[in-house]
Amino acid sequence: MLRAQVCCSRELSFLMEAHDGLSAAIAKRAGFNGLWASGLSIASSLGYRDANEGSWNQLVDVVERIVDSSQLPVLVDGDGGFGNFNNARLLARKLRQRGAAGIALEDSCFPKTNSFVGDLHPLADIDEFSGRLRAVKDAVAGDFVLVARTEALIGGHGMDEAILRAHAYADAGADAILIHSRRSAADEILAFVRAWQNRLPVVIVPTKYYRTPVSAYRKARISTVIWANHSMRAAIAAMRQACGRIFAEETTASIEPNIATLDELFELFRYNELANAEARYLHSDDIRQ
Ligand code: SPV
Ligand code: MG
User: Fold this and answer.
1) Which residues contact 119 (CB under 8 A, 6 or more apart)?
2) Rounded to an integer, what distance in angstroms lies between the CA atom of residue 244 and that of residue 103?
3) Is residue 229 within 6 Å of ligand 1 at its C-beta?
4) Domains located in the chain, CATH noted
5) What is the pLDDT of residues 247-268, one digit of tens each?
6) E strand or H helix at 224
7) How much of the chain is helix, strand and coil, in % rounded to 5?
8) In percent, how much of the chain has pLDDT > 90?
9) d(CA 282, CA 276)
10) Which ligand 1 atom is at minimum distance from the Cα of 228?
11) How far is the CA of 41 from the centre of ligand 1 (A)?
């Protein structure tokens, strides 16, 4: 299913960020048919920085909640794989066991730093990272999607380096290439796509170049757009406002119209299904108690 969206579809696909079961359910309700389990957003929701402060098994646990609550294909941000080829393939195996549909691995060094933080983004050796990709491919053959992400442009290493790495990662068995940019215009992404000539599908993350219309990506025959952190950032803004108002006003009266109702919450998680199941499975004496 994710393979069809990311690798085989002629249509531009969209993956919406999720960082827990709630954000996953909301994204599904909005109409998205695939999710991005964002490292930045998951770290933030756990109170960590996006610098491998959270462990790989915490990531796996969160992904299970995202998969479970949405029943959608989930592409997981695996960072650099939490170590060498062995850590990367263990992570991929565990993610597949928990129902993820694929993993994106980036050619950063452990511990990673978020692409938009600071200027120090050392790249992994090409051959070493290719080994990580090959190991993952061997460990989770079949339908599990492997997206190779290069941080060459993020680290300021230039277009030639980005293309060189993308070809090496394609040779290593990647199913798609994620090219990332921190520029506020899509120019270097579109230049990459022209030079790459669609050897493999291209995945992009237009967080900084959000003003570019998606028609430009359709025209460039980009495969997949990831909206990488927007539910998390929307939640920060909404929670900050609610907490600030309640603290200042010592009442919740004025914010009631602006927050989700409890009925909305109960509907989102299908509390009526539980009530129906109780009627069917609980002994009538249990219900009365
Ligand atoms: C993430 O969502 O964690 C990503 C995208 O990797 S970015 O934060 O832009 O690096
Ligand atoms: Mg990330």
Assistant:
1) 156
2) 38
3) yes
4) 2-235 (3.20.20.60), 260-289 (no CATH)
5) 999 999 999 999 999 999 999 9
6) strand 224-227
7) 50, 15, 35
8) 92
9) 10
10) 2
11) 8
Ion ligand 2, residues whose Cβ is below 5 A away: 39, 77
Amino acid at position 47, single letter = G
pLDDT for position 240: 98
54 Cβ below 6 A of ligand 1:
no
Query: Which residues, in sequence order, are bridge partners of residue 35?
Result: 16, 74
Pocket flag, ligand 1, residue 207 (CB < 6 Å): yes
Choose which residue among 114, 154, 181, 183 to substitute to test ligand 1 binding: the one with the highest number of ligand atoms within 8 A of its C-beta. Answer: 114
For the record, the structure tokens of 175 come out as 């199913």
The token pair at 131 is 């080994």
Q: Which residues contact 188 (CB under 8 A, 6 or more apart)?
A: 153, 159, 181
Given the structure tokens 């080994």, which residue do they identify? 131
Q: Which H or E run includes 254?
A: none
Q: Which residues are designated catalytic?
A: 50
In order of 20, 194, 287, the CA distances from 232 in angstroms are 10, 32, 39
**Average pLDDT rounded to a whole number, residues 75-94:** 98
Confidence of residue 289 (pLDDT cuts 50, 70, 90): low
What CA–CA distance (Å, rounded) separates 189 from 186?
A: 5
Atom 2 of ligand 1: nearest residue by CA position = 38
**Ligand 1 proximity of 114 Cβ (cutoff 6 Å):** yes
Q: Are 227 and 36 in contact (CB under 8 A)?
A: yes
Place of tokens 């989102």: 268
For ligand 1, the distance from its centroid to the CA atom of residue 144, given in whole angstroms, is 20
Indicate if ligand 1 lies below 6 Å from the C-beta of 39. yes
Place of tokens 């757009």: 225
Atom of ligand 1 nearest to the CA of 79: 6
Which residue has its alpha carbon closest to ligand 1 atom 7? 115
